[in-house]
Design brief:
The complex is a heterodimer of chains A (about 575) and B (about 500). Chain A contains 24 helices and two strands. Chain A is mainly alpha-helical and about 575 residues long. Chain A folds into three domains: about 500 residues, no CATH class; about 30 residues; about 50 residues, no CATH class. Chain A has a two-stranded antiparallel ribbon with strand order 1-2. Chain A is globular, with a radius of gyration of 29 Å. In chain A, about 55% of the residues are buried. The radius of gyration of chain B is 22 Å and the shape is globular. Chain B has a two-stranded antiparallel ribbon. Chain B has a domain of about 220 residues. Classes of the chains: A mainly alpha (about 575), B mainly alpha (about 500). At the A-B interface, helix 5, helix 6, helix 22 and helix 24 of A face helix 6, helix 9, helix 18 and helix 19 of B.
Chain lengths: ~575, ~500
């Protein structure tokens, strides 16, 4: 029952809130209420169920990594739902927003609790297509453009996914997601199927080279929607990857190396490119790409073998948890500086600072020990070049700090409102801060197996205390902050743009569009040639039409009719007909 | 087959008699006509349900009538036929409601409803016919009874379209006749399901039977709108919306598709058709039609014309599924008979509603229509997503089975066809959805024609909502016993057990 409520309540909330008049309070609370069954599933272990009536026989259950990500997802949807309730209270299209918000939520929860292909794909599609409405919400030309690019990429992703699922289900001989990765490990075309899944889900994850829709679409949505897009939905792709990846069962060195190098390219490249941006939300979107790169690296080393899935996948989920809560905090935070006044601003800056620290992996945050997990596994992999990877990881902490301090700098330039009141949406934000802080700074979510593995002989609390106050981890961050402060203050005084980005957001997209334009021109020429050809042929569908319409035809047919009326012709005709039949069938 | 049951005949009569009586009525007797119509429609649904229940209990319903020495008119109930009969009778009921609303105050309604009833008589006749001859009789009856519907408006354009329609369908019928007679001469009377007759003869007369297969297939392909015989379909969309809906979803095109299913599964048998490579020819034509129809649909601005080309494309899914041997693809093909029907009828209802309420017939006029007709366009959006193959709408289920079956059979190229078709479907349906929901209307809101509470007349609105719900329910509850999928799977499994 609880499994169905998890999906049905958000759908109900979508319909109910869509019809509430604009300006009405309580929308946020409805959304919070809709997340409660999912919260229960995230906290309490419930045995899975089978729904024999749903789609092609659905199963719902959770495993450890997915439970962690479900909890993250619930926290983000609940707080951003509450946030949206206040943030969009007077928006003209609030009803529409609520509808898409609730539907997307249902899809996001549904795909996490699905244990079999059809329902997973269904909810994945629901999330993807419902969030289109969130991206296009503002109806500005740039939002429309972002939404269009998002949709095209989403459809391309879906096509890759369905192919991957056809092949995977066929080789597994089962619709269960849990049967897919062992089957891929065995099947001769396993790496190919995985590659299809890698591309299909890579669109959602924002993996290189499929990420370019992300810096356009995530910032286009209203702040609470960006928070769930970048914090929760992006992880749906990661969950998809986990379903396909036979971690610990195979040694696919080339795929592993491919994922690791793409991951590091994203981790460093996206952070650096993000520096050229002037919209704080675009900055964050690039940071998301960069952070997802780190998770790509982690999953990539899993494909080289040697690390059991039971350890690696929860570690990735925990990293995702930390990134998700912090990123949502920052995304919602972009709405705050213009609205929060007085002493509440201190709280705001502390929260934003913690969020930045958490993503960069600084002390006193969950970022430190989730990064520690990454380091542990990177150090232990037998993949050649592990030492370089550790160096690159540290370097990515520097670039991330650079990017996020630039983000803070951009927020800093937004003027505070005259009033000293804290708006209603500071509350959900603080709730998110607390929830994220609690679950990322304590070992509450750490599965026992992984905990034993990383703490070794040390006591758990001592271990955590050591980690959280590991000031040595501060040096990459300090370097980042100093470099940023230096460039801002001295080197590029007044030269760092604040109005227009140095380079357009969506980088790679522009090359594609340029090439696409050229191609479109060529195709257009081809089509006009073809159309000319078809016109001269009148199109096959007009063939009979032409015959029947032609004057000569009608004359001939009239004549034919006169002929036919003479019985000797009919007789001869029938005779010939029968002779032919007879000869044919003899 | 000894006992004769009049129930199958009764199913046919339930629409034939109201149709005939309507012809005898006067044009002004609206109440009586509506009563006869609805009575017939409801009775037919009830009878089909009754027979269905009986069939599930294991009873057999057969009706014989000897026309000549060897020629028998035979109605027989089997699962596939019942499946198609259920589709026609349910959608006919819905379409009758819609037509009553749509033609309110129109001209020649007596003629219209009479032939409307004949048309569904023919299509249930096709569903229930027990042998090739009976099938052919109803197939031709269908051609003749739809012609007055196509030209209903009586405009020059409609008459021209009607002429084209006749050229194609009578031509197809003639070819089919040739094939049916030939088959009778070579193999004697064939009842559906007696695949052993051909199986035994194929080694004796391979050439003749091959030629006959393709002759019959050509005759059927005209109605199933397989390239290059699809030309009548986009032209005959000048007919009123309920007619297009019926033509595109249930009656004519489905008769062709159903005929192909019968020909391959119940006359020649899947083994023979596969051995003799008939299926690969069919597969190539079907695949090409899928792509061709989609590409043509992209360039249409006329709402109904775009839907018409989409029908051309979607219908060939059925042929493609038949052409790839395997339980899964057969399931996909059979279930798509129903799924395509409910989704496409939803789309035509929606197009009709928009045209009837606001007079918009072009896609470029649809900006912001979703705001004013949320239920209509909501149903349309569901159907469009289904056509693309997105879950949980019915179309996903068909595509899932077709794709998985193609992979199982090792025909990977079919997956590419399905993917390309999904992408093309998205390319021509999503712009409509986008315009309806996300574009601002170009005109004043004060131009709204209806100021009442409903977005359109109730009789126009209810059918579209019902079929919209059906299209999503057929997908969501696909695994449930009694769903189209479960029945299709049963039929397909039986085929391959033999």
């Amino acid at each position: 029952m609880i499994w169905f409520l998890t999906i049905v309540l958000p759908l109900l909330a979508a319909i109910i809130t869509a019809y509430l008049p604009s300006g009405r309070r309580g929308v946020g609370l409805i959304f919070v209420g809709a997340t409660l069954p999912a919260l229960w599933l995230g906290l309490v272990e419930v045995s899975g169920v089978t729904a024999q009536w749903f789609l092609l026989e659905s199963h719902f259950s959770l495993d450890t990594p997915r439970r962690i990500i479900l909890l993250l997802t619930v926290i983000l949807w609940a707080t951003s739902g509450l946030f949206a309730g206040s943030y969009l209270k007077d928006d003209a299209r609030r009803g529409e927003f609520s509808f898409y918000f609730g539907a997307t939520m249902a899809g996001n929860f549904g795909l996490l609790i699905s244990a079999e292909v059809a329902s997973f794909y269904t909810f994945f599609a629901l999330m993807t297509f419902a969030s289109y409405g969130l991206v296009i919400h503002s109806r500005t030309p740039s939002a429309r453009r972002a939404a269009r690019i998002y949709l095209v990429m989403a459809i391309i992703g879906e096509l890759f996914l369905i192919t991957a699922f056809y092949l995977a289900v066929q080789s597994a001989g089962s619709m269960l997601l849990a049967d897919i990765h062992p089957a891929l490990a065995e099947a001769p075309n396993g790496p190919f199927i995985f590659l299809l899944g890698l591309v299909g889900f890579g669109v959602k994850v924002g993996a290189i080279p499929l990420y370019f829709w992300l810096p356009l679409a995530h910032p286009a949505a209203p702040a609470p929607a960006s928070a769930v897009l970048s914090g929760a939905m992006i992880k749906a792709g990661l969950v998809g990857w986990m379903h396909f990846a036979p971690v610990g069962l195979v040694e696919w060195s080339s795929l592993s190396l491919l994922m690791v190098s793409l991951g590091f390219t994203a981790a460093l490249g996206a952070a650096i490119y993000g520096l050229t941006q002037v919209d704080p939300k675009t900055n964050l979107a690039y940071s998301s790409i960069s952070q997802m790169g780190v998770m790509t690296v982690l999953l990539g080393i899993g494909l080289y073998g040697g690390i059991p899935a039971g350890l690696l996948l929860p570690a990735i989920a925990l990293y995702a948890f930390n990134h998700g809560t912090a990123k949502a905090l920052l995304f919602m935070g972009t709405a705050l500086p213009a609205k929060v006044g007085g002493s509440w601003r201190i709280l705001m800056w502390v929260g934003l600072g913690l969020g930045v620290l958490a993503i960069a992996g600084g002390p006193l945050t969950g970022g430190l020990w989730t990064k520690y997990l990454v380091k542990t596994f990177l150090g232990e992999t037998s993949l050649p070049g592990a030492q370089t990877f550790l160096l690159l990881l540290t370097l990515s902490a520097v670039t991330t700090t650079l990017l996020l301090s630039r983000f803070l700098h951009l927020l800093y330039q937004i003027k505070a409102p005259a009033k000293k009141v804290a708006p209603a949406f500071l509350l959900p934000w603080v709730l998110l801060l607390l929830a994220g802080g609690w679950w990322t700074m304590t070992p509450a979510l750490l599965p026992a197996e992984l905990m034993n593995y990383i703490t070794k002989e040390k006591g758990i609390m001592a271990f955590f205390w050591n980690l959280l106050t590991n000031w040595g981890a501060l040096w990459p961050i300090t370097i980042g902050v100093l470099v940023m402060a230096f460039t801002l203050k001295f080197a590029m005084l007044n030269r760092w743009p604040t109005k227009n980005p140095i380079l357009p957001p969506g980088d790679f997209l522009h090359i594609i569009l340029l090439a696409g334009d050229l191609l479109a021109k060529l195709i257009g020429k081809g089509i006009s040639l073809l159309e000319y050809g078809i016109k001269s042929l009148q199109g096959p569908e007009k063939l009979f039409y032409r015959i029947s319409d032609d004057k000569r035809t009608s004359q001939i047919s009239a004549y034919a009719e006169i002929l036919l009326r003479r019985w000797e012709f009919v007789g001869i005709g029938f005779f010939i007909f029968f002779i032919t039949l007879f000869l044919l069938l003899r | 087959m000894e006992t004769t049951s009049y129930l199958p005949l009764l199913i046919l009569v339930s629409s034939l008699i109201p149709g005939t009586l309507i012809l005898l009525l006067r044009e002004e007797q609206v109440g009586l006509r509506t009563f006869l119509n609805l009575f017939g429609a409801v009775a037919k649904v009830g009878l089909v349900a009754w027979v269905f229940a009986g069939y599930m209990r294991g009873e057999e319903y057969t009706f014989f009538f000897r026309l000549a020495l060897d020629l028998t008119f035979s109605l027989r109930v089997d699962q596939l036929g019942l499946f198609f009969a259920a589709l026609s009778s349910v959608l006919w009921l819905v379409t009758t409601l819609y037509a009553i609303g749509y033609l309110e105050g129109g001209q020649h309604r007596r003629r219209f409803f009479a032939f409307f009833s004949f048309c569904v008589t023919a299509s249930t006749g096709i569903a229930l016919s027990g042998n090739v001859l009976t099938f052919f009789i109803f197939y031709e009856f269908l051609t003749l009874s739809t012609y007055p519907l196509v030209v209903h408006r009586g405009t020059d354009k409609a008459v021209e379209a009607g002429r084209t329609y006749l050229w194609y369908t009578i031509g197809g019928g003639t070819i089919l006749f040739l094939g049916v007679v030939g088959l009778f001469v070579v193999a004697g009377p064939i009842y559906f399901g007696q695949t052993e007759i051909i199986a035994n003869l194929i080694s004796v007369n391979p050439t003749q039977l091959t030629i006959l297969f393709f002759i019959i297939l050509t005759g059927l392909a005209v109605k199933a709108a397989i390239f290059p015989l699809h030309g009548w379909l986009p032209i005959s969309m000048v007919a009123p919306a309920p007619v297009s809906a019926l033509l595109h979803a249930v009656a004519v095109v489905k008769a062709g598709a159903f005929g192909i299913v019968r020909l391959v599964y119940d006359v020649y048998g899947i083994q023979v058709a596969e051995q003799m490579n008939y299926l690969s020819v069919l597969a190539v034509f079907a695949a090409f039609t899928i792509i061709y129809g989609s590409v043509r649909a992209m360039f249409q601005d006329d709402f109904k014309k775009r839907l018409a080309f989409s029908t051309v494309s979607q219908l060939s899914y059925i042929a493609l599924g038949v052409a790839i041997p395997g339980v899964l693809t057969s399931t996909g093909a059979i279930v798509h008979l129903v799924h395509q029907g409910i989704m496409k009828i939803t789309m035509f209802f929606a197009a009709g509603n928009v045209a009837e309420t606001y007079g918009y017939k072009k896609i470029s006029e649809l900006n912001g229509i979703g705001r004013r007709m949320p239920l209509t366009m909501g149903a349309f959006t569901i159907a469009a997503f289904g056509m693309i193959g997105l879950p949980p709408v019915a179309g996903f289920i068909s595509k899932w089975y077709l794709g998985l079956g193609a992979v199982e059979a090792g025909s990977y190229w079919v997956v590419f066809v399905l993917l390309a078709s999904s992408a093309l479907n998205a390319a021509y349906f999503l712009p409509i959805v986008y315009r309806a929901w996300y574009c601002e209307p170009d005109y004043e809101v004060s131009r709204l024609r209806n100021s009442g509470r409903l977005e359109a007349q109730a009789l126009l609105l209810i059918p579209v909502v019902v079929t919209g719900i059906l299209s999503i329910a057929a997908g969501v509850f696909a695994a449930m016993a009694g769903s189209p999928l479960s029945i299709a799977r049963e039929i397909a499994e039986k085929l391959y057990l033999l």
